[in-house]
Design a protein that fits this description.
Helix content is about 85%, strand content about 0%. It has about 325 residues and is mainly α. The chain has a single domain, classed as Na+/H+ antiporter like fold (Up-down Bundle), CATH 1.20.1530.
Length: about 325
């Protein structure tokens, strides 16, 4: 598993290729989406199993980090998304709206996995989840009003279902596992936790493969949309990556906190935004298509950024020696 972690970028890119290939089989494309949540669940179970609880409590006291992340995610990012859309998508209003909806909803699951891969501060990133979930639910109608000109109803049940499946349930199961296996502490620490902890990249690869198998056909049938969205999406990632590095340096964050900030302001919550888009704009499929294509670009970028962060961490250690 250690080798798998070192080659995680290659593994993820291979998973994308296999997913697109398997998605050409109709029966696999039809049922692949049923496997995304289970694989995501196991990934996060392993992640929460390895998180020490005491640092998690302390994470809520890091007001400087929480305020910085919140300002970037909910003030800076909507403005950046609108600006990039104005520059590159003004002739495609449906894609522009889908792009904005993707960018204004911070991720509530994937970014924890990539934060773990990049050796970031996972307890601190986990502490952001309640803030990110509540604010995106409250503010998405406001963004729709500002950017689309209409107020649309956000299905709270969609958000709650997502949070329960990929956050509450695996976290509760991890706590239950600790409680049940506390009398077998040696087994818990030496076998159970290392297996699921080290297996995160493997289950991440399976989840990505399932996602691309179920949704990849949209990309292959509408390649022009990918080209239209590619530049603004990549610019968003580059700008926020540089911003996180600069702010982390200015505020004197540790490497772990800078890595956490980087991934929480880059990773987006496309499943929630997609569900809302389908409900709010059923007569504009291009909005939903933008939200499907978004993660097709985002996931390999997150893998590359995780690798860049690890490379930075290695250089910092070498310099300090």
């Amino acid at each position: 598993m250690r080798t798998l972690e070192k080659l995680q970028t290659l593994v993820i890119l291979l998973s994308i290729s296999l997913g697109l290939l398997l998605g050409q089989l109709h029966i696999i494309e039809q049922y692949a989406d049923y496997f995304i949540i289970p694989f995501l669940f196991v990934m996060l179970y392993g992640l929460f199993l390895t998180i020490p609880l005491k640092p998690l409590k302390k994470a809520f006291l890091n007001y400087k980090f929480l305020s910085t992340s919140t300002i970037i995610n909910f003030i800076w990012t909507p403005l950046l998304a609108w600006g990039l859309g104005f520059l590159f998508l003004s002739e495609h209003p449906a894609l522009w709206m889908g792009f904005i909806m993707l960018m204004v909803t911070p991720c509530t699951d994937w970014y924890l996995i990539f934060t773990g891969v990049a050796k970031g501060n996972v307890p601190l990133s986990t502490a952001l989840l309640p803030v990110n979930v509540i604010l995106q639910v409250l503010l998405l109608p406001v963004y729709l009003l500002i950017f689309a000109g209409t107020v649309e109803t956000v299905e709270l049940s969609t958000v709650l279902e997502s949070v329960i499946l990929v956050l509450v349930a695996p976290f509760a199961l991890a706590l239950l596992s600790r409680y049940v296996l506390k009398k077998k502490e040696s087994f818990l620490k030496n076998k159970w936790t290392p297996f699921f902890g080290s297996g995160q990249v493997f289950f991440l690869a399976l989840a990505i493969m399932a996602m691309f198998a179920s949704q990849g056909s949209y990309l292959l049938e509408n390649l022009n949309v990918l080209y239209i969205l590619l530049i603004p999406v990549l610019l968003y990632f580059v700008i926020n990556y540089v911003l996180a590095r600069l702010i982390g340096r200015f505020l004197k964050f540790s490497y772990e906190n800078t890595a956490s900030l980087t991934l929480t302001i880059i990773a987006r919550n496309s499943p929630v935004a997609l569900a809302i888009a389908v409900t709010a704009f059923p007569d504009q499929p291009l909005i939903a298509l933008a939200l499907v294509i978004g993660p097709l670009i985002e996931l390999p970028v997150l893998a590359i950024i995780s690798g860049l962060l690890l490379f930075t961490r290695k250089n910092q250690k070498a310099t300090s020696i």
